[in-house]
Specification:
Strand content: 5-15%
Shape: elongated
Helix content: 55-70%
Number of strands: 6
Strand order of the largest sheet: 1-3-2
Mean pLDDT: 75
Order of helices and strands: HEHHEEHHHEHHEEHHHH
CATH class of one domain: Mainly Alpha
Radius of gyration: 40 Å
Low-confidence stretches: 220-230, 254-287
CATH topology of one domain: Arc Repressor Mutant, subunit A
Structural class: mainly alpha
Length: 287
Amino acid sequence: MSSQLDDAALLAAELLARRWLPRQHPKVKRALIDADLWAATQDRLAQVGLRLIDNLYADHVSVALLRPAETTVFGEAGLNSHNNIDLPRDAVSLLVVLWSLIVLPKRERQAARAANAQGDDQNDMFGKDRPLPTAASVSPLVSYRALLADFGVQLGKKTRLDANLKRLENHGFIVRKGEDIAEGPLLDLLLDYDALAQRILQGALGDVLAQAKQLAGNLPLALTQPPLEELPTDDELAEDAALLADDAGALDDASAVHADTRPLQSDARPAAGSTAEPLTSADTDEA
């Protein structure tokens, strides 16, 4: 047995034992630059129905089942299920939310930095290939408090959310850093970006992002240039003054009438100690 096959067997065994390895691991680093070692490792894994999965945008490598072996291992029920690691539905929803909040911005930042690096190389006479930014350097952190406030009701509130976060952490999808949630080794490896990104960006999340961009574009204009109120004309001012004068005159007349009627009301009352009764309508007719 050659040394390459031995190295391939050791790499395959370590991947099976640890489930994932960082790209900077000595065996993985060598396999990434040695095509023969990479092919030998793939052959060793294929003999037991596995394949080596690698992602340029991720910082780890792992193993997964070959497509022909999935039907035999999981059966039709397993293939039709939303996952094959016994995650409940709310945990799968949480996984998709975290994937959207972490992987999508990370990929966008990596692509932007790669494009900027290519633009700088055009002005460099001795330009050379620059490595893609690592996931750890550009991957965003998700605040636990913000996640609970935004999705706590939909994902089962605090108790259920904490339990599902623990499940995802045990499976290697996320890493907890105090009150923050970071990308785990398998988050960008086991979830198919090409299939999932289009469904999310063109689905409900795409509408939300489009509305947010439109609102962000209109907010500065609305805040810095509020609509101006039209000033009243001279005729409108004159009409308002006349109405105010009429109202003031009506109030003065009403006050005068009220003042004039007070003595009449006091005179109509019987004097103190008098036994006379007030006149009725019948008495006035007789008079």
